[in-house]
Amino acid sequence: MKLYTECHWDGWDRIVDIYPERSDKLPEYINNPENYKIIILEKGALEITSGSRKRVVKAPALIGLSQHDVLSYKILQSIKVCILFFKPTVIREEFTYDRIDSGELAETWGTSIYQDYLLIKYATVSSNVCDHIIELPLNGLKRLKELFTAAEKELHGQKDGFWPCRSRSYLIELLYCIVYSYIEAAPDSAESPETDEFSAITEYLNEHIDEQVTVETITKKFAINRNKLNEIFMKQASMTCHDYLLNLRIDLAKAMLSNTELPINEVSSRVGYPDPGYFAKIFKHVTGKTPTQYRGK
């Protein structure tokens, strides 16, 4: 089974190591040892066994698998899944399996590369598949399906010469949404109304990162005053809500600028800045470089 996408254009011999699939079952090649997999469970339930552990997974949920993982499962209720097969080198060419397995990425590489490595790290830190399962809120499922569909559309449609990097950018954004909505944003402290509110707000920010969301948007949507909002964010993230949102946008922009050839105006709109000039000003203020300079580094 070819778990990659070939170019349909005459005279352009190009493949992209991403393969999208929708199904009402998990395919027999789900444990292919040459790919990472992101499985979005949008309907049904599975019982997953890994080592001595068993875990029931009910939709909506997400399962991340590295090339080493073997998914042993039983279908408890009819399922519907969206699956992205990909190789880590589609994110960065440095992300070979040998380097990932050796730990070289974490120990010796710079901040920019390590930040990109965080996008796939959660599927590698444990050998037990039960630790790679994330329960999703319904709005989280909606956003991940939108990004899956966008990547799928680019891979199948190939409407212009940017389809390879645009499909990669949607994979990066999907992984970014997973990591920063449901892993990095998970509060360390015990559950409380404040930690629940923080989680709900950070999920919303990630899911609407391409929109013109402001602090005022958040205060109105969550019926919270600005001082209380910032108090929660300072306690949970050591920064204000405004700075948290700014960092989300700039970090995603940096990943797209570093790892794709998308036009800067498209990167700008994808991270919530419809005006590329204003985006460039904000980006330089945060990073010390213009988007063009950052890409050229």
Please supply descriptive tags for the structure shown above.
single chain; 297 residues; alpha+beta; Jelly Rolls; Arc Repressor Mutant, subunit A; 2 domains; six-stranded antiparallel β-sheet
Question: Could you tell me the mean pLDDT?
Answer: 90
Strand content: 15-25%
What is the element string, with H for helices and E for strands? EEEEEEEHHHEHHHHHHHHH
Instruction: State the CATH architecture of the largest domain.
Output: Sandwich
Largest sheet: 6 strands, antiparallel
- CATH-derived topology of the largest domain: Jelly Rolls
Number of helices: 12
Question: What's the count of strands?
Answer: 8
Task: Report on this structure.
There is one protein chain. The mean pLDDT is 90. The chain has helices at residues 97-102, 104-108, 111-121, 138-157, 163-182, 193-207, 215-221, 226-237, 241-259, 264-270, 276-287, 291-296; strands spanning 5-6, 15-16, 18-23, 36-50, 53-58, 61-65, 72-86, 133-135. The strands form two sheets. Strands 3, 4, 5, 6, 7 and 8 form a six-stranded antiparallel sheet that branches. It has a two-stranded antiparallel sheet with strand order 1-2. It is an alpha+beta fold and 297 residues long. A hairpin with a 2-residue loop joins strand 4 and strand 5. The chain has two domains: 5-176, Regulatory protein AraC (Jelly Rolls), CATH 2.60.120; 185-296, Arc Repressor Mutant, subunit A, CATH 1.10.10.60. It is built from twelve helices and eight strands.
